[in-house]
Amino acid sequence: MATTQVALPLPVLPEGWAGEKGFKAFSSVSNATNRNIEPVGPHFLAHARRKRHQRTFSEDERIQAQENVKKVEDEDASEISELEDPLLLSRDAKDWKGQDHYAVLGLSKYRYKATDEQIKRAHRKKVLKHHPDKKAAAGSTEDDSFFKCIQKATEILQDPVKRRQFDSVDEAADVDPPSKKETQKGNFYKLWRPVFAAEARFSKTQPVPALGDEKSTKEDVESFYNFWYNFDSWRSFEYQDEDVPDDNENRDQKRYVERKNNAARKKKKTEDTARLRRLVDDALALDERIKKFRKEERAQKDKRRLEKEAEAKKAAEDAARAKEEEARAKAEAEEKAKVEKAEGKKAKDAAKNAAKKNKRILKGAVKDANYFHGAGDATASVIDNVLSDVELVIAKIDNEELATLAAKLTGKKDAKEVKSVYAEEVKRLQTEGKLKAGDAKTLLS
Fold first, then answer.
1. DSSP reduced 3-state for 329
2. Mean pLDDT of 7-13
3. Is the torsion defined by CA of 182, 184, 186, 188 positive or negative?
4. What pLDDT score was predicted for residue 119?
5. pLDDT band for position 376 (50/70/90)?
6. Nearest to 186 by CA among 295, 288, 83
7. Other C-beta atoms within 10 Å of 282: how many?
8. Which neighbouring-strand residues pair with 203?
9. H or E stretch at 381
10. How many other C-beta atoms lie within 10 A of the C-beta of residue 96?
11. Exposure pattern of 423-438 as b/e (b: 16+ CB <10 Å)?
C-alpha cells in the first residue's frame, strides 16, 4: 500500500500575542520525526469495500442491511423462531386488544416468562422482516397492518403495567386442570404441577410453595394447600375494559362506562377467585397424600380410642377388683371384729366370772375366819364392818391384784393368816396412796 504524507499546519496564533512578553522556555523542542500513518476505522473499511466491489453508497447500504437482517435472523433462530400464521399476518391493527402480543412477536412458548431482552430481540427481528420500506423495496404490495401489530405488541410488552394487565387475561398461558379420570389414570404430580405453576404467576407472594411428591411431609402438604386456600392474587382485568370515550363533552357517558368497567372487574375477580377455589378443592380431593394422611389420622384415632377403651376397661377392672378386695377386707375385718368381740366378751365374761369368784374367795376367807371376831358368833355390826372393808379393798385393786390376793387367801382358814394377808394388802394400798390411813382398819392386825 502506498504511503500518503499529510501536511498539518500549526495553529494560528491569537492576535496581539508576542513571544517576548512573559515567555519562559522550560525545555527545547526535539527534532522532527517522520512517521507513516495508515488509514483505519469503519469508514475507511466501508470505503475500501465499495471500491473493491465497485458499489455506490446506496447499493452498499442496501446489501449491508440485508446481511445484517440475515445475521440477526441467524442469531435469533435458535431462541426466537416460530412459524408465522397467515391469519396472524392478516390481522387488523385496529383490533389490537384481541391479538396475542406474544404470538405477534414470536414468543408464544415464553409468554409471561419472556425477558425484556428477548422482547427487544424479537421486536428487532420482526421489524427487520416486516418493515414497510423493506417490503416496498422488494416490490410487495401488502399494507403495513401487521407491522402496526408488531409495534403495538412491543408497546404493550415493554410497559410493565400494560404487560401485567395483558398477562392477567392471557388465556394462552393458562393450563387446564386434568379431569378426575385423567388424574386417576396418570401421575397426579406430573399432571397438576403445571397447573399450579401457571396459577403461581399471579401470586403476590414469591416464591410459591412447591406441589411436592409422594415423599412430602404432612406439614409441607398442609402448608401448600393453606397457601392456595389463602391465595393473594394480583390478577386484574383492566385489559378487558370497555374503551372510555375521550370526548370531554360527554362526561356522563364517560362516568357510566367507568362504573360499568369497575363492576365488570369486580365480577371477574370474584369469578376467578371461585374458579381457583374449585381448582384447589379438586386437587385436594384427588391428592393421594391427603388420603394417606387421613387414613393415618384415623388409624391414630382408632389406636388412641382402643388404648383409651383398654385403659378404661383396666381402670374399671381395677376398680371392681379394689371394690371386691375392699368388700372382702371389710368382711374379714367385720368377721375378725365379731370374733374379737365374741372372744373379748368371752374373756370379759371369764374375767367377770373370775372376779366374782375371787370376790367370793375374799369374802369367804373372812367368813371362814369368823370375821376376825374370835370365839362365838360375830355380831351383825362386826360382819358389816369387815365386809365393808373387804369391799373397799376390792374396789381399790384391779382383777389381777384381786386374783393374786384370792390366791394368797385360798385354802387359808386360820383367822390370823387371813388377817395377815389382808393387812399386808391394806398396807400396800396405803403405801401406793390408794387407801388412807385409818381405812380398812378391821383388816389390820
1. helix
2. 74
3. positive
4. 92
5. confident
6. 288
7. 17
8. 233
9. helix 380-396
10. 17
11. eebbeebbeeeebeee
Torsion angle (degrees, nearest 10) of CA 57, 61, 64, 65: -170
CA 152 to chain centre: 47
* Helix spans in 159-250 (H): 160-168, 180-185, 188-199, 218-229
Instruction: Give CA–CA dist 270/261, Å, rounded.
Output: 14
| Residues whose CB is less than 8 angstroms from the CB of residue 425 and which lie 6 or more positions away in sequence, other chains included | 393, 397, 405, 443
Report DSSP letters for 120-146, one per residue: HHHHHHHHHHH-HHHHHHTT----SHH
Spatial CA neighbour of 282 closest among 180, 163, 426? 180
Query: Grid coordinates representing 223?
Result: 402448608
Q: Enumerate residues 6+ apart whose C-beta is below 8 A from 107.
A: 80, 82, 114, 118, 119, 122
Render pLDDT for 186-220 as a digit per residue (tens, 0 to 9).
Answer: 788 999 999 999 999 999 999 999 999 989 999 99
Phi, psi of 203 (to 5 degrees): -80, 135
The residue with cell 430481540 is 121
* Contact by Cβ (8 Å): 422, 361: no
